[in-house]
Design brief:
Number of domains: 1
Distance between the termini: 43 Å
Radius of gyration: 19 Å
Strand content: under 5%
CATH architecture: Up-down Bundle
Number of helices: 5
Order of helices and strands: HHHHH
Number of strands: 0
Largest sheet: none
Structural class: mainly alpha
Length: 135
């Protein structure tokens, strides 16, 4: 985990199916969907748990089938994470562009998680700098 503060957050329980469903819903809706406040930390824990499970299974020659299953879940989760992050970053960029160009909060930040908000604010600052140089 990143800090002691993130360890105090009650993490949502994630499964492979719930992670996949979150991606599916993010693809389906045009706006940023609401995620639980410890989502990225819980996803990191899920991925770390899969890595640890794979390490344990590598030492046990009797569990090759389970090892392959865990590897597939791990690799699929990484792909889902990458696609979900790409979708959410695109939506956050669009919101930041609209908010900074029109200088009003036409798009609310309510579904932007704390970790994503840093990205959102940095984009707004960069756009405002460009706007000043051009305008």
């Amino acid at each position: 985990m990143e800090s002691s503060q993130s360890q105090n957050i009650e993490l949502p329980l994630l499964t492979f199916n719930s992670i996949y469903n979150i991606l599916r819903e993010e693809k389906r809706v045009k706006t940023l969907q609401k995620l639980p406040s410890g989502f990225y930390e819980a996803l990191e824990k899920f991925i770390d748990d899969k890595k640890n499970e794979i390490k344990k299974l590598k030492d046990d020659l009797n569990n090759k089938e389970k090892l392959m299953k865990e590897k597939n879940i791990y690799l699929s989760t990484i792909k889902i994470y990458d696609e979900l992050l790409s979708l959410r970053c695109s939506k956050i960029c669009n919101a930041a562009i609209k908010n900074s160009l029109f200088e009003e909060d036409i798009i609310t930040k309510e579904n932007i998680l704390n970790k994503e908000n840093i990205f959102f604010e940095d984009i707004i600052k960069a756009i405002k700098k460009v706007k000043i140089k051009i305008g």
